[in-house]
């Protein structure tokens, strides 16, 4: 394979396909290189629920993104607002003010226009009624700033983006792994690829790398995230092994961001080593704010109700990995089982049920039964039952006097049947990556842009530190992908 294009894009997830569409829109000829076979293509983007975070001022903005909303839906739903200020506050708060302000500004300020742009490329969006809203007095109320998902989830998103690329003449090469970058006089001019064992070169006046982080590489995980991370399960694609980051570093790119940090969640304890597209994100277990989590010693170790799920789930995977045996159990009683997300009702769960707390304690595999019973009793006695329970706001119904408090949505566990679910740590993506500028152009260690090289998506460093507001990964990929593709096309013409 010896071909030349204006822009070559590495990867075929959300960031890559947005970059390809943005480059094509500017008149560039575009090739997309995807190392996975077509049936496994689309990276982590395909594993998502398609939930995507953006700033909106109310229903008028939402109607630009979802013109198909019915009168009925509008009447029966309180969509609220999620302003740019709210988005900024969330980014700064969860990253403990580490996020790069310039990159965050791009992310937040371009979020809404990027949604409208994606729609113009044929994507459809719908409200996330199932996961981000609760019905209060007959009306759905959204909470936590995350309101919209791609139609058909991650599968639908990748399919629509792929179709959109194909109808616009963008060529996608599957089973084509980028292995290195080609440079001439300091400028990137192409990519070395391996296709079914054969190595060749693809020329590009500019290259966009959007090949994800290094979450699927056990050796890099252990090296950068720390000992024990080789034991985490990978939630998504097995193909994100840090190739793009490595190739860029090899030609002098500057590493940037939270290299020891990652997004990791509570994930089915017996899930396979990598994600399974048939289950998607069903292995996650995100309803812990309505119950408690205990480790093998029978102890609680996080504040399950510290904040809305969207703002704690991405950092609690690390807490679970740090427990003895790298596992924990989530426990609920019958008062809240109707609030549990769909993922609790899939076949592939490690679940036990019991009619008394004593019986439940005896059924939790690998857990000290006496200790967990003591924890349950102590927790039950500490719940401030005088404060009303309300899942749509931070209700302040917490515990009093516990070493590990629960700050919101605390309920006495007293109504059988009791249910418990075994979880371990599932890694989603890594936070460290490459340094880019306002054009998403990769910066070298002398802080100069590398001619012809752009990056987008998970592999951009400096955006997320320690934690992450749910739904921001897809938005970041779309914003930086679109920026990178447009800038690469402009560079490719000179
Ligand atoms: C189970 C799960 C659920 C999630 N849910 C959500 C959600 O609802 N909302 C949200 O915003 N985020 C979610 N995320 C995070 C989200 O998936 C990522 O932030 C986002 O999809 C990253 O997009 P990307 O394009 O950078 O990477 P990816 O979509 O992972 O794409 C990377 C691509 O690069 C390819 N590639 C890798 N190496 C090479 C190589 N050497 N040569 C060629 N190609 C290569 C891969 O095959 C892949 O196609 C979820 C993640 C997982 C795993």
From TrEMBL:
Cite the entry's keywords alphabetically: FAD, Flavoprotein, Oxidoreductase
Cofactor(s) needed: FAD
Q: Does the keyword Oxidoreductase apply?
A: yes
| Main enzyme class | oxidoreductase
Q: Which residues form the FAD-dependent oxidoreductase 2 FAD-binding domain?
A: 6-471
State which Enzyme Commission number(s) the record gives: 1.3.5.4
Provide any one GO MF term from the record. Answer: oxidoreductase activity
Question: What InterPro entries is this protein classified in?
Answer: FAD-dep_OxRdtase_2_FAD-bd, FAD-oxidoreductase_2, FAD/NAD-bd_sf, Succ_DH/fumarate_Rdtase_cat_sf
The protein's name in its UniProt record: Fumarate reductase flavoprotein subunit
List the source organism.
mine drainage metagenome
Originating gene: ifcA_1
């Amino acid at each position: 394979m010896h071909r030349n294009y204006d822009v070559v894009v590495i990867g075929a997830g959300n960031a890559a396909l947005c970059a390809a569409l943005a480059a094509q829109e500017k008149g560039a000829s575009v090739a997309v290189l995807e190392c996975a076979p077509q049936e496994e293509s689309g990276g982590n983007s395909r594993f998502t629920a398609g939930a995507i975070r953006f700033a909106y001022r109310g229903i008028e903005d939402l109607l630009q993104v979802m013109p198909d909303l019915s009168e009925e839906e509008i009447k029966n739903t309180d969509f609220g607002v999620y302003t740019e200020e709210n988005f900024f506050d969330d980014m700064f708060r969860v990253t403990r003010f580490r996020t790069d302000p310039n990159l965050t500004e791009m992310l937040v300020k371009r979020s809404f226009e990027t949604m409208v742009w994606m729609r113009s490329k044929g994507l459809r969006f719908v409200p996330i009624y199932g996961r981000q809203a609760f019905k209060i007095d007959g009306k759905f109320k959204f909470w936590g700033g995350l309101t919209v998902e791609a139609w058909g989830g991650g599968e639908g998103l990748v399919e629509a983006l792929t179709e959109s690329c194909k109808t616009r003449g963008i060529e996608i090469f599957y089973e084509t792994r980028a292995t290195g970058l080609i440079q001439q006089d300091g400028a990137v001019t192409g990519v070395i690829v391996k296709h079914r064992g054969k190595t060749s070169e693809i020329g590009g006046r500019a290259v966009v790398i959007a090949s994800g982080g290094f979450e699927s590489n056990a050796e890099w995980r252990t090296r950068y995230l720390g000992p024990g991370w080789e034991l985490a399960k990978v939630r998504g694609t097995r193909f994100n092994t840090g190739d793009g980051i490595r190739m860029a570093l090899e030609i002098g790119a500057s590493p940037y961001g939270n290299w020891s940090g990652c997004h990791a969640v509570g994930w089915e304890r017996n899930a396979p080593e990598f994600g399974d597209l048939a289950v998607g994100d069903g292995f996650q277990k995100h309803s812990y704010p309505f119950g408690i989590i205990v480790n093998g010693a029978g102890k609680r170790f996080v504040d399950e109700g510290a904040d809305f799920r969207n703002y704690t789930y991405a950092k609690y995977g690390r807490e679970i990995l740090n427990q003895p045996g790298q596992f924990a159990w989530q426990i609920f009683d019958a008062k809240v089982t109707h609030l549990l997300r769909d993922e609790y009702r899939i076949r592939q769960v490690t679940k036990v049920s019991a009619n008394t707390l004593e019986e439940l304690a005896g059924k939790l595999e690998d857990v000290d039964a006496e200790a967990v019973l003591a924890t349950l009793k102590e927790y039950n006695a500490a719940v401030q039952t005088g404060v009303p329970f309300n899942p749509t706001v931070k209700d302040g119904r917490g515990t009093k006097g516990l070493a590990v408090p629960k700050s919101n949505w605390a309920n006495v566990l007293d109504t059988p049947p009791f249910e418990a679910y075994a979880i371990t740590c599932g890694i989603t993506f890594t936070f460290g990556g490459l340094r880019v500028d306002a054009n998403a152009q990769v910066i070298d260690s002398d802080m100069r842009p590398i001619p012809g090289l752009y990056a987008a998506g998970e592999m951009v460093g400096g955006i997320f530190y320690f934690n992450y507001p749910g739904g921001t990964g897809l938005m970041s990929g779309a914003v930086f992908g679109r920026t990178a593709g447009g800038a690469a096309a402009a560079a490719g013409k000179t």
